[in-house]
């Protein structure tokens, strides 16, 4: 039969063995949540979308705007879309359409390039300019 003393002693031994494990798990959770908070606070959307044709900036938009803009160059047309903080090319009349298939961009330093039309769409962060 199990006595109350024996059960209490077994509980103490169990806790002695597992307190270090519980503390270690708690420390890892605190560190993990701290890192997650830091990473999420650092990843912010850039502020400006620059549209360049032949290396010359022809238009600037705020990333928070909702815009559909036709980029016209001597080589062809691209249709730019900015919505919900994301930027992409809806359509282009270039033969390969790599620029359209690039997908959506949203972070500073990302860009979409259409080589046949010599078009570059890039997200710039205002903090870099200050």
Top keywords for this entry?
alpha+beta, 4-stranded antiparallel sheet, 35% strand, 130 residues
Structure overview:
With 130 residues, the protein is of the alpha+beta class. The chain is built from three helices and seven strands. The strands form two sheets. A four-stranded antiparallel beta sheet has the order 2-1-7-6. The chain has a three-stranded antiparallel beta sheet with strand order 3-4-5. The longest helix has 39 residues. The termini are far apart. The mean pLDDT is 88.
Beta-sheet strand percentage?
25-35%
Number of strands: 7
Strands of the widest sheet, in order across it, are: 2-1-7-6
User: Which value, in Å, is the CA radius of gyration?
Assistant: 27 Å
Question: What would a concise description of this structure say?
Answer:
The chain has 130 residues and is of the alpha+beta class. The protein is built from 3 helices and 7 strands. The strands form 2 sheets. It has a 4-stranded antiparallel sheet. Strands 3-4-5 form a 3-stranded antiparallel sheet.
Detail the topology: elements first, then pairings.
Layout: H1 4-42, E1 48-53, E2 56-62, E3 67-73, E4 76-83, E5 86-92, H2 98-101, E6 111-114, E7 119-124, H3 126-129
